[in-house]
Amino acid sequence: GALAAHLARHVGTTADALVERGASARLADFSPVQLEGTLPPAGRLARTHITGHNNTHLVGTLA
């Protein structure tokens, strides 16, 4: 669908993500990102490499 196509455009890119609760973050366009690995505190911007998506959110690691 449209969401999956939108998310697919981000895969392979690096962007700043605002860290929310737990391992959740959002890109500047509000795309949801599930972070993997060591996480910064909530409220921080984290440079994130987008490695994939699962049709509902992006998956990324800190760059």
Your description of this structure?
The protein is mainly beta. It has one domain (2-62): OB fold (Dihydrolipoamide Acetyltransferase, E2P), CATH 2.40.50. Helix content is 14%, strand content 44%. It has 1 helix and 5 strands, in the order αβββββ. It has one helix spanning 2-10, and strands spanning 14-19, 24-26, 32-36, 45-53, 58-62. Strands 1-2-3-5-4 form a 5-stranded mixed barrel. The radius of gyration is 10 Å and the shape is globular. The termini are far apart. The model has no long low-confidence stretch (mean pLDDT 96).
Short summary of the structure?
The chain is mainly beta and 63 residues long.
Main features:
5 strands; single chain; OB fold (Dihydrolipoamide Acetyltransferase, E2P); five-stranded mixed beta barrel; 14% helix; 1 helix; mainly beta; 63 residues
Q: Give me the secondary-structure category.
A: mainly beta
Q: Overall pLDDT, averaged?
A: 96
User: What level of helicity do the residues show?
Assistant: 10-25%
User: Uncertain segments of ≥5 residues (pLDDT<50)?
Assistant: none
**Rg result:** 10 Å
CATH architecture: Beta Barrel
The major pleated sheet works out as: 5 strands, mixed, barrel
Outline type: globular
Rounded to the nearest angstrom, the distance between the terminal CA atoms is 28 Å
Helix tally equals 1
- Strand segment count: 5
How many separate domains make up the residues? 1
The helix/strand series, from N terminus to C terminus, equals HEEEEE
CATH topology: OB fold (Dihydrolipoamide Acetyltransferase, E2P)
